[in-house]
Amino acid sequence: RDAELGLIARFPSAPSQPFGQTGHSKVSTELRHLVESGAITTTYHTEATPDGVERTLTFRRLAKAPMLVNVGIASQDYLAAWYQEVTQAVAMMLGFLLLSLLSGGLLLRLLTQAERRETILSLREEGLNHAQQVAHMGSFNWEPASGHMQWSDEHFRLWGFEPQTVVPSYALFLQGICADDVAHT
Fold first, then answer.
1. Cα 161 to chain center, whole Å?
2. Distance CA 129, CA 93 (A)
3. Which of 87, 112, 166, 181 has its CA 20 to 30 A from that of 51?
4. What is the pLDDT of residues 167-182, one digit of tens each?
């Protein structure tokens, strides 16, 4: 621009727009105030550009000629990469949220099924215990590899023990069997 802020050259050119034509002196209020204040170089941001595009601009007065060079970049241009990163971050967060909701739903479903199965198993165990009491017979589970034994409540009663007073074991089991039958086990 010349000393009166008339346009000398513009890149990229915009001859189809009135403010892009050589000699045109319409500038933003910010630039006019900065030039009138005597500033030699400065950077400023303006929303009031002749073409309506928000820009950050830098101008510098030339020392050897009554001109100033004004260079600007549109905010949308220098923020484009940031907008892309924000979009990607939001997409990733939404994906993570969706995955978390799906995982949580699946976990809730599995927990509900497990609780239902546990209830059914508990009811069946109660039925079995009742049937064993009526029939006066108990049951047990024995894992030979570990030696672990598990007795039903009726088995404890038939052996003459309270479930809270003893830990079932194979040796204790053998004590309840007739001595003649122990040799066959």
1. 55
2. 53
3. 87
4. 998 888 888 888 888 7
